[in-house]
């Protein structure tokens, strides 16, 4: 990584000289000031970006595998742009590796329009053997393509949505009594739809707040069936969800009649009014060969959300197997403004690996800030 710290000066047409640098933990206060001064959301809630750096980078046990905490551009010794990079442990083609994901790219407003963001992307692509991003605007997607990043998944991102209950919407419209009665009646049709999942009756789910050795056993047993996916050991899950969270997440674990862990789901809730809310399924892990286990987990989750009065659920996970199942079940495909998952690898990844990349809402920077 020595070549990263010896980047040449960049000269623009206005003869301004910029220098690229690897950033370290001592640069975080400068990054915070830059982000807060240039993003309205952070001006309102400056603690959100500070919490992200603390939880995702400073307290990240895997961060030591990267050369620093990100890349920056300085002008006359002052940081005027940065791109944070955080480490995630990964299972890729039968081997454990580290992927560096980007987040919170910021350029000082007075220096925008000079191509500095593109230079940050190019610089950060050298940060690790594999780097990636899970969020990108339309303009940024073009920059990724020009710099050799590969799209993971289709333009639609293969996300889906389904109605869980009519009660919340009807309560909002007609009041608690009448809306509740009408909603329960209409929910019978949704329960009939969900019966197609054919849940195994001896299975049950419960929310856990600490992952034990059963999670390690499940991960070690099933990871070999995944071509590429985020590590789901107990050490990673406990760190990401409970020890250093960036927003409130729930983990629902699926157990069989012998109380053996068979799979799990990670989700959060977004509230739109007193009666209308949406559950967002960010992750689901299960034996790839066991569709019955997957169907049971989905059925129990949907029923739980309905019992909680949740109106909708977004399924923000994707793989060929999941896409085929959700399509077959008749769930609504979510429109998208373009691919949001980009990967850059020093050694080109095979099409088989890319096509079977297991995408999850705990990959990358989905959970930057409290929801």
What would your notes on this structure say?
The protein is an alpha+beta fold. The chain has 2 domains: 2-151, Gcn5-related N-acetyltransferase (GNAT) (Aminopeptidase, 3-Layer(aba) Sandwich); 160-335, Aminopeptidase, CATH 3.40.630. The chain is built from 12 helices and 16 strands. The protein has helices at residues 28-38, 40-44, 46-58, 116-124, 138-146, 167-174, 176-194, 213-222, 234-243, 291-307, 320-328, 351-355, and strands at 10-11, 17-23, 70-75, 78-92, 95-107, 130-133, 150-151, 160-163, 204-208, 228-230, 250-255, 261-271, 277-285, 312-315, 332-333, 342-345. The longest helix is centred in the middle third of the chain and has 19 residues, at 176-194. The mean pLDDT is 91.
Helices and strands in order:
Layout (H helix, E strand, L loop, with lengths): L9 E2 L5 E7 L4 H11 L1 H5 L1 H13 L11 E6 L2 E15 L2 E13 L8 H9 L5 E4 L4 H9 L3 E2 L8 E4 L3 H8 L1 H19 L9 E5 L4 H10 L5 E3 L3 H10 L6 E6 L5 E11 L5 E9 L5 H17 L4 E4 L4 H9 L3 E2 L8 E4 L5 H5 L16
Parallel strand pairs: 5-6, 13-14
Antiparallel strand pairs: 1-2, 2-3, 3-4, 4-5, 4-10, 6-16, 7-16, 8-14, 8-15, 9-11, 11-12, 12-13
